[in-house]
Amino acid sequence: MIFFVVRRSFFAIVLLLIVSAFTFWIFSALPADPAALTCGKNCRPEVIESNRERLGYDKPLVEQYGAYMKGIFTGRTYGEEGSSIHCPAPSLGYSYDRHECVTSLIASTLPVTASIALGAFVLWMAIGVGLGTMAALKRGKWQDRVATGFSVIGVSLPTFFLGLIFIMVFVIWTGILPFPRYVGITENPFEWFMALLLPWFVLAIISAATYVRMTRNGILEVMNEEFVRLGIAKGLPRRRLIVTYVLRAALVPIVTIAGLDFAFLLGGALVTESIFNLPGLGKLTLAAVVNSDLPILVATTMVAAVFIVVANTVVDILYGFLDPRVRAK
Amino acid sequence: MRSTALAVVALVGLVAGACGGSGDGVQSGEESGGLSATYDGVGEGGTLYVLTNSEGASTLDPQRVYTGAELGAWGSTFTRTLTSYKPVAGKDGTSLVADMATDLGTASDDLKTWSFTLRDGVTWEDGSEVTCADVAYGVSRTFGSEVTAFDGPQYAVSYLDIPEGDYDTGSAYPGPWLATEEEQALFDEAVSCDGKTITFKLAVPVADFAYTVSLLAFAPVPEAQDTADQYALKPFSNGPFKIESYEEGKELVLVRNENWNKDSDEVRSPKVDKIVWQFGLDETVIDERMLADAGDDKNAIVYGGILPENLQTVFGDDTLKDRRTDGFDGFVTYTMINVKTVSCLEVRQALWLAIDREALRTAAGGPFTGEFASSFVAPLLTTDYEPAKLVEGLNPDGTPNLEAAIAKMEEAKEKCPEVYAKATEDGLRFDHPDTDTWKKYMAIWIDSLGAAGIKIVDNPIEGSKYYATINGDQGDLMRAGWAADWANASTVIPELFGQGGGFNYHNNEEDAAFADFQAKVDEAKLETDRGAQAKLWKELNQYVIDQVWSIPGSATKAQNLVGSNVRGAYNWLPFGWYNLGDLGLAG
Amino acid sequence: MTLLSVQDLRVTFGTADGDVHAVQGVSFDVEAGETVAIVGESGSGKSVTANSLLRLNFGADVRTSGRVLLEGRDVLAMTEDEVRTVRGRDVAMIFQDPLTALNPFYTVGRQIAEAYEVHHPGTSKKVLREIALDSLQKVGIPEPSKRVDQYPHEFSGGMRQRIVIAIALVNRPKILIADEPTTALDVTVQAQILELIAAMQQENGSAVVLITHDLGVVAEITERVMVMYAGRVVEAATVLDAFATPTHPYTRGLLKSVKSLETARHERLESIPGIPPSLINLPTGCPFHPRCSHAASLGGRCSTEVPVLRKVGASSSACHLPDERLRDLLGGAHDR
């Protein structure tokens, strides 16, 4: 098992290196010229060239990448002396557009996204698995119809639309909730909770829809398994059978998918963050796209990739723990 | 002396505007904001909110800011300058008043030396006095392009009497961060202090330098507080508000500066305790919140305007009369003509007569987006603005006059067969930023000019490179937009059409009519009598219109809605937005 | 009192295509310690009958009628809680496929212990482990103390079936229902498992209801046999009688196909012509008549009248043929 974890981790690191190099390359290949973008008002070709030099975009890509990777371990100093800026390790670059080290931008936005993702994840798993289980156990009854109906609606609703409806109903029309304004959990846990309530529900409803279907189908499938029949034949009480036999088996594939979905969300809940004005990774990325803020884009892409790769690894390892058959291999 | 970023901002506005319908039914017309524009029932204190879709300020650094609304907003709250605009609605708002300085400055007879004396009691947020050295240091920052990145106006570089050199700005002085002692001496020679008096030595005579120093680029910065690039996040305040916190994507919180000395400031009269900018809000949500006008949103204004699809609602509902504004934002869009390649007045006139301006405006979003311009000077510049007499036969409703256009082309065939052949056979190359909206505009250009027998060759250019590209390689026709840098057409006519004008892509120097024009421009620039100067600008504008070096498009407009408690929300003409620092809340 | 008495059991599954009449009036008794086989092709209703004994037929629309009296108490009329106390305690079941019958997520020890613990709540962990170890040893799993903590996938098919048997027997049930217990196993393992079932039966004194399509299996361990066809019992007899003197043309067909397999590989496999009937659209009259070579000799009777089970010698048969003809045709045919 330890060997497995080490090998998976090594593979993950190699993958991240590839992703980072690819990210670097793809953004440099975009038609938008980062140097031109820093040159709004007094634009002349010479100005663009001077900006290009100042930002280091004139260097060969390999050299830029090397400097970037080195900065992660040693920190990096930007600009000329007298007006230089130092970004301590792990430096992910400096955003001239936002006048901040990218690492500190990530550090300030990540907790927001993590807060959104964590709460939404808990809710959507509760709603998704709960409704899915109910639908499966009450198959064909009204509960099933309600749950599958919810699933269909949830899947087809765009986040943007649902978010807007929630804001209209709960904030603007009825005033039950204040307009979300993100506050750190350490600063004021209650305000933090209130700001995240709506986004959690929006994300949960939309994501839960898939999980309702997955759980329902998974349970129904497992219920036809011979070992469940043996469980019944043993005389296991229904509740115990459902929990220890049916759900236990049905949730294994769901947990693995959920792990990846969660990691994906950690990379930034773009639309939700925009609608509810939560300053998370998604909004940081979006703004960076609009401004072609390359250092931020590279960093957020890398961070998202790290989450996905790490989640993949964790899910793989977790799968081993969850399913003894996988463990053996 | 360029203001392309302002033009870029306007372009963005047009792109957004084009999403909606044509705004038919409700006609756009000037609306002042009714009760909200007055100070009736205003109280002291409270928190004012600014809702915006922007992720943050473009910058808070005085030497780098160049967006109209922000110049006004930062200037009225935390950045005082030597001179400022009068904080009133209407035409008077474009008149200059002394701010940190005791008066509007003293010029030498040749207009090449300007002196300003600082008032007593002007202080920084830490209570220390604003010194002449602080002003000089602030001005020097514009030269440090490795930090300020050409973001702000470059008047300091182009006006000050400092030798030319190899640095990116073209100057021999590299800014305060990198300058050697000798290099610093060059700057100190041009900008010198004598007690409280600061003296600017200029390389060229400038009649309206008092306007120039109202730009935040001429604002003071204490050297000890300068954090170079990061000064854009937390500039030191010498105004009635100071920055409590600023986080892009989240909010900017301005609180009252206890060390602002009210007696030293005759311009600002702050009312609220706190101003909170909330960044990154969804535009749809902003509009809904403003329409609902509930809770704290009663105390809110919007930076960014109303979505086109909501204009109908806002301007169709008379209960919103006291909260809505509709006015010019200071921009004029126009189509530059390369006078060198289209060296035939009749062809240029035919272009103007044939283009379907109404269709273009409909594609942009209808009458709310602006009025057909009849001057390159925006209507906001009330002193210098006067509608010009346009080409004969032009339909006032914006529809093409095909008959007149064809007649002009017939004339051109006789008078200038080469240009005629180019226009009808090779086609005229039209440069424009590559956006979805511009695809629609181009279809209209090609169709309506095609009807007059003129061929258009579409040349889209990637947006961020547009102005840089046409700087090197001009097409026959080019899209542009412009707003004045200060309330004087000296930042419009010479810039757009004069010799060496920073935004002159017309190649009109070789035109036979150019010499007369330039002579009059030089005269106007040195005219110190404002009334006489305005008259000259009006004549020069008419001159350009007559020569059709450029085709005026729209004087663009912006619509806005404020919360019902907001007072003093008048359109401050020099900036095309509210006087943020003076806004109050009903008490 | 009869240990198990099944009376006029009828099971119908409602499906989108129509009602599936899986079991249509089956009655039989099982005495304590006795071994009874239910034989038939797939679709004959034998497994549905077996499942009915523990109410294990699931589906959206299952209609069951008749009575399943376990020591006089009707299983079909019990509440869910009551049935649960019967399942695994009074009546235990062995399923066909040991590869899928065990829960892959739990150790075999836990699964055995669980079967005991359900009916003996409060049993200490230590005791449960002892019971699991003991059960494993009894069913012949070597090194039980090591194997008890292993997962099902770590065992071979035969071993798994032993574990399934261990689970079934842990509560010393009065009746053990074995639904095709050897079908999924290698031929070599089959015999071992049958021996094990027989041995365990000896030890526990349980009655065994063996469901199979394999007459060879029947011959090995059972005393009485019931042959089912299309949801009905067509013949009930002792194994001896059934093999020696089958009293139903279908039984004879079954026997012939087995015999021909066993005796001479050169002989042509003589199976029953035709296919088993659809349980949705059953033939009228005797369900076997479309495949029966004797039906024509009785005029139209076979296609109009359902034959009832009646005594024919020591056996019972559901055939319209007169007794003598049955004996001649079937018994005699066997001798030839």
What does this protein structure show overall?
The complex is a heterotrimer of chains A (329), B (587) and C (336). Chain A contains 14 helices and four strands. With 329 residues, chain A is mostly helical. Chain A has two domains: 86 residues, no CATH class; 225 residues, MetI-like (MetI-like fold, Orthogonal Bundle), CATH 1.10.3720. The relative contact order of chain A is 0.13. The model of chain A has no long low-confidence stretch (mean pLDDT 86). Chain B is of the alpha+beta class and 587 residues long. A six-stranded mixed sheet of chain B has the order 14-18-13-17-15-16, with helices on both faces. A five-stranded mixed sheet of chain B has the order 9-10-11-2-12. The N terminus of chain B is likely disordered. Chain C is α/β, with parallel strands linked by helices and 336 residues long. Chain C has two domains: 219 residues, P-loop containing nucleotide triphosphate hydrolases (Rossmann fold, 3-Layer(aba) Sandwich); 87 residues, no CATH class. The chains are: A mainly alpha (329), B alpha+beta (587), C alpha/beta (336). Chains A and B meet through helix 3, helix 7 and helix 12 of A and helix 1, helix 4, helix 8 and helix 15 of B.
CATH topology-level fold name of the largest domain in chain C: Rossmann fold
Unreliable sequence segments of chain C: 264-269, 332-336
Architecture of the largest domain in chain A in CATH?
Orthogonal Bundle
Total beta strands of chain A:
4
- The CATH class of the largest domain in chain A turns out to be Mainly Alpha
**Which structural class is indicated by helix and strand composition of chain C?**
alpha/beta
Report strand % of chain A: under 5%
Quaternary organisation? heterotrimer
Overall geometric form of chain C:
globular
Helix content of chain C: 25-40%
CATH superfamily of the largest domain in chain C: P-loop containing nucleotide triphosphate hydrolases
N/C terminus separation of chain C: 43 Å
Distance between the termini of chain A: 10 Å
